[in-house]
Specification:
The complex is a heterotrimer of chains A (223), B (378) and C (251).
Chain A: H1 4-37, H2 43-55, H3 58-69, H4 74-81, H5 91-117, H6 120-127, H7 132-143, H8 145-160, H9 164-170, H10 180-189, H11 193-222
Helix pairs in contact in A: 1-5, 1-8, 2-5, 3-9, 5-8, 5-9, 6-7, 8-11, 10-11
Chain B: H1 9-13, E1 24-32, E2 35-43, E3 48-52, H2 59-67, E4 74-79, E5 82-86, E6 91-92, E7 100-103, H3 115-123, H4 135-142, H5 157-169, E8 175-179, H6 187-203, E9 208-212, H7 215-221, E10 224-229, E11 232-238, H8 239-243, E12 257-268, E13 273-278, E14 281-286, E15 295-301, E16 305-308, E17 319-329, E18 335-342, E19 345-352, H9 353-359, E20 366-371, E21 375-376
Parallel strand pairs in B: 3-9, 3-10, 7-8, 8-9
Antiparallel strand pairs in B: 1-2, 1-4, 4-5, 5-6, 10-11, 12-13, 12-15, 13-14, 15-21, 16-20, 17-18, 17-20, 18-19
Helix pairs in contact in B: 3-5, 4-5, 5-6
Chain C: H1 2-21, E1 25-31, H2 35-49, E2 52-58, H3 60-68, E3 75-77, H4 82-89, E4 99-104, E5 106-110, H5 122-125, E6 131-134, H6 140-151, H7 155-158, E7 162-165, H8 168-176, E8 182-186, H9 187-190, E9 191-192, E10 195-196, E11 200-203, E12 212-218, H10 226-235, H11 238-246
Parallel strand pairs in C: 1-2, 1-3, 6-7, 6-8
Antiparallel strand pairs in C: 3-12, 4-12, 5-8, 5-11, 9-10
Helix pairs in contact in C: 2-11
Classes of the chains: A mainly alpha (223), B alpha+beta (378), C alpha/beta (251).
Chain lengths: 223, 378, 251
């Protein structure tokens, strides 16, 4: 059955997914915008870096994050210099890792949405006295809304399903970094299959509902 | 002032109107592989200026330069006393700070906003003090009252384009730029919109730069023409002047014509005819339902004009105008194109070469132009 | 996750075809902490017997689940003694084939010299942010580490500073990257040729925790496979034992 520790893990997972999704939208939107608009030679490089988590095993990402965020890593040196301390084994660290891990799931739908808008509405807005930022909020955001909905759902769901990265930089601390997927892993490793089943079934149902919402909505849009 | 200025590429380059506060002064040089735009224009600050030419001639690029959507590396633009671009001092006013209206080839309404919100989009970004065209006027001018609460997706092509024009007008532009606004529409829709464009011309004192590759549209709407080819201005001038120039492709078109701006002088109810007047000369046309003194534009095709050495009264032709031969073009082995001067207005006549030889048509000769048909453009 | 699943399928099909093709191969599931010595032993085994040991490394709990669900492993080198015993009880092994192949030794280790003293008093002083241990729920070294802390009466005071690796390898990474200043890891991880490879360490006295017995067993799939029996025997031979000891394991 679901234990108190399981509930704590579920709560923490939802919290992490919510914060991560918010951070992803903040970080991913300008990246996606840049990727959609730029003619820079760096477009390919940046696009590839963003897409890396799609192909890299999460443990690889997790390990590099652990090294990079650690006391001897470049990011770790920076966070220490800024007086933020070190990120591994903290909730903030999990958010950072999750943002990187789920970035393509947010950037790519947004980039597609931005590319679909094209140049024309932006030019029209300019001839109607709207500056760049004004245009972004009054034209681009509303036109890209389906992209934002998709990005939000995918970002949230993918963060909920995250495991390898959390495992590597989380340290499995109850209430701080022990999320559902890690909890399930622990149950399985400890041969507590009944508990594992409960949580796994929950994840399964959750994922299905999310994807159903996503694909159901897409169909509606086509119609 | 516009009609009097000596237009033509040479004259324009000397900057005949550079000091004129009401004029448009535009010089742009930019290019990319396979294309280069290089123009230096002095244009009147009122009326409709048509940018005319084949596709690829640089019409749209020039229009985008005027709007600031394209930034010419070598560029200068002053519009009615305001400096919008001067690369010599690295000055470039971005599009959204230029008081202009732009109508794109396809209507480009914001799909997420109702017609009314589309109209208000530009309007609310214009300071109240700068609003000279009330929204109601723009709506009435384009006849779009019934559409206000619809979404753009539920409008016809013609309706969308009318909304786009009203949207541009509602920003009270000091310059209206239109990029083939009728090109995407079928003939019926074109006929639906043209009257609105003419009203625009008649009722608002906004210079309009109008891109087109359709001679009909140009003849009907334009006061001035900039003829573009390969990114250069072949000719600039009043429409009557440019259309009649024998050194330009227009005059050699099978449907070559000139336009004559005239006014309604009298109605002859008995024969259902209307007498127009231009340069003190009469021009009869089938009866019009227009008040006296209305300004109209008539089109006379070159092939509808024949020549006689005497003013004959034994023919069925109504309009016989005294004219002087200005120049001839004999590029075609069978036919001669004659440019005439009718009291200061240019007229084209296409006659057989044999007739030209028999009548002794040479420059300077006084003749009578027999006009078989006159069509009213507006 | 999906990629890992695909990879598993590919691996499984490779394994299946390999088994069919060569009878003198033995499929071995090896606890992750025993990776290095096992590779060395397998090389010797192949040279001495002609049999090939195909090694899969991973977490003991995961292997258990796989074995129970039909994975074709013939010999299992676990990280504990409980899992092989359980498989025994459930009839998934060749009865009587179970034996202890190594005894893990716990060490308190820091990647930095001078952090851990040779009496482990750093634990009592508590001037560190994170102490890494393996998850006591899943890893025998974690159980041992918690036992040490309890016996030193430090468990409660340090609880808030514990970070838990899912297995002993991850715990080692936490410490090696400096994210945790120190941690309880396996002696085999920090010892090369009988010497500390770097940093500072305190080898925890055997009396402070129950021995970490790592048991091996021949699985049901290896019942009639001479190669499986041969490997089990070889592991207890002098050559293998010397290798095992050189990596810091007891026997």
């Amino acid at each position: 059955m679901i234990t108190a520790a399981d509930l704590a893990a579920i709560r923490l997972t939802l919290e992490l997914a919510a914060v991560t999704t918010a951070a992803l939208l903040v970080v991913g939107t300008p990246v996606a915008w840049w990727l959609a608009r730029t003619r820079s030679a760096w477009k390919g490089v940046v696009g590839a870096v963003v897409a890396l988590p799609l192909v890299l095993p999460p443990t690889v990402i997790g390990f590099y994050l652990l090294v990079a965020l650690g006391p001897h890593g470049p990011v770790g040196q920076l966070t220490q210099a800024l007086g933020l301390g070190l990120l591994p084994f903290t909730f903030a660290g999990l958010v950072v890792g999750s943002v990187f891990y789920s970035l393509p799931f947010v950037v790519q739908p947004l980039q597609n949405a931005f590319e679909a808008i094209g140049e024309r509405p932006l030019e029209v807005a300019a001839t109607l006295r709207a500056g760049a930022i004004d245009t972004f909020f009054s034209v681009v955001l509303p036109l890209a809304r389906p992209g934002f909905v998709t990005a939000t759902i995918l970002g949230f769901a993918h963060t909920v399903g995250e495991f390898g990265v959390v495992l590597m930089i989380g340290g499995n601390i109850p209430d701080k970094t022990r999320v559902v997927s890690v909890q399930i892993y622990d149950h399985v490793e400890a041969l507590e299959y009944a508990e594992a089943h409960w949580l796994s079934a929950g994840m399964l149902v959750f994922s299905f509902v999310v994807l159903l919402a996503l694909y159901g909505r897409k169909k509606e849009m086509v119609r | 002032m516009s009609g009097a200025a000596p237009f033509g590429p040479g004259a324009a380059r000397t900057g005949a109107m550079a000091g004129d506060e009401a004029a448009i002064r535009a010089r742009f040089g930019l290019g990319w592989p396979g294309f280069r735009l290089d123009v230096d224009l002095a244009l009147p600050g009122r009326g409709v200026i048509a940018l005319f030419g084949h596709s690829g001639s640089g019409k749209t690029t020039l229009l985008r330069c005027l709007a600031g959507l394209e930034r010419a590396a070598d560029g200068y633009l002053a519009v009615r006393g305001e400096l919008w671009q001067d690369e010599a001092q690295r000055l470039f006013v971005p599009t959204h700070r230029r008081p202009l209206g732009y109508v794109f080839q396809e209507a480009s309404l914001f799909a997420h906003l109702t017609v009314r919100r589309n109209l208000e989009f530009g309007l609310k970004r214009v300071p109240a003090a700068s609003r000279r065209i009330p929204l109601d006027q723009a709506i009435a001018l384009l006849g779009i009252e019934p559409l206000l609460d619809r979404m753009p997706g539920r409008l016809s092509g013609g309706e969308r384009q009318r909304v786009a024009i009203a949207r541009a007008l509602a920003t009270s532009p000091r310059l209206l730029l239109m990029d083939e606004p009728l090109a995407a529409l079928d003939v019926k829709r074109k006929q639906e919109i043209l009257p609105y464009l003419e009203r625009l011309h008649a009722e608002l004192d906004i210079p309009v730069v109008y891109v087109s590759h359709a001679p009909e549209e140009v003849a009907r709407l334009a006061d001035h023409v900039v003829l573009l080819a390969d990114g250069r201005a072949l000719a600039v001038g009043p429409i009557g002047e440019v259309m009649a120039r024998l050194d330009l492709p227009f005059a050699h078109d099978e449907d070559a014509f000139v336009v004559i701006d005239a006014r309604v002088a009298a109605h002859d109810e008995a024969y259902a005819l209307t007498r127009l007047e231009f340069a003190g000369l009469p021009l009869w046309i089938t009866g019009l339902d227009m008040p006296l003194a209305s300004r109209v534009r008539a089109r006379v095709l070159a092939r509808d004009v024949s020549l006689a050495l005497t003013e004959r009264h034994d023919s069925s032709i109504l309009n016989v105008l005294p004219a002087r031969v200005v120049s001839l073009d004999e590029a075609d082995p069978g036919r001669t194109l004659v440019r005439l001067d009718v009291a200061g207005t240019a007229l084209l006549a296409r006659i057989t070469r044999r007739s030209a030889a028999q009548l002794g048509i040479v420059p300077g000769r006084d003749v009578y132009a027999q006009v078989k048909g006159v069509a009213l453009l507006r | 996750m999906k990629f890992r699943f695909v990879r598993l399928l590919v691996a499984a099909s490779c394994i299946a075809s390999a088994v069919a093709a060569h009878a003198a191969e033995v499929q071995v599931a090896v606890a992750a902490n025993f990776t290095a010595p096992m590779q060395k032993i397998a090389a010797e085994f192949e040279r001495d017997t002609g049999h090939t040991a195909l090694l899969a490394f991973g977490a003991t709990g995961k292997f258990y689940a796989q074995i129970k669900n039909g994975a074709p492993f013939e010999v299992f080198l676990a990280a504990d003694d409980k899992t092989p015993a359980r498989l025994d009880e459930e009839g998934a092994t060749v009865p009587g084939s179970r034996f202890t192949y190594a005894i893990g030794r716990l060490v308190l280790w820091s990647a930095q010299p001078g952090v851990v003293d040779d009496q482990g008093e750093v634990l009592g002083r508590g001037d560190f942010r994170h102490l890494a241990v393996a998850n006591p729920k899943t890893a025998p070294y974690g159980v041992a580490a918690m036992e040490v802390l309890r016996r030193l009466s430090l468990a409660d005071g340090i609880a808030a500073r514990l970070v838990t690796g899912e297995n002993i390898s991850q715990t080692y990474q936490f410490v090696a990257t400096g994210n945790a200043e120190l941690g309880f890891v396996a002696l085999s991880q920090v010892m090369v040729d009988g010497k500390l490879s770097g940093g500072s360490a305190w080898q925890v006295p055997a009396g402070l925790y129950d021995p970490i017995r790592q048991d091996a067993v021949i699985l049901a799939a290896g019942r009639d496979k001479p190669a499986a029996r041969a490997l089990a025997d070889y592991l207890r031979g002098d050559k293998a034992v010397a290798i095992i000891k050189s990596y810091g394991y007891g026997l």
